[in-house]
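Annex B. Sample input.
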Amino acid sequence: MINNRRRNFRSRPQKSNFRRRSGPLNSGNSNSLNNNGNLNFNRNGSMNNINNVEKTMQKYQQLAKDAQSNGDPVLAQNYLQHADHYLRRYNELNERRENPSEKSDSDNKSLAKEENLEKEVRSATN
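Annex B, continued. Sample output.
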């Protein structure tokens, strides 16, 4: 008789979208920054907060030490590469904090370098 009992739970309505969108789905604005998924990848500004970057760098350094002491040099090297990435990001944020006015200049210089590199690649392929 217990098997014939009706269950006391409510079924939830099925969600149609995997992610909820705050605005209209097709806004027609292709130049919008929200269309690029990579710009929304960093949550809570984690890569822009110097304290978070420093803490993450130290975490990977400690994981590398632990992996090395456990006798896994491949995993230790992997963690050291992650720590190196965060160290470069940390140094970049320090430079921006010390020289906030030079940020736009460095951005313009990097764009010019990219354009020159593209020209060199085009000329080499032709």
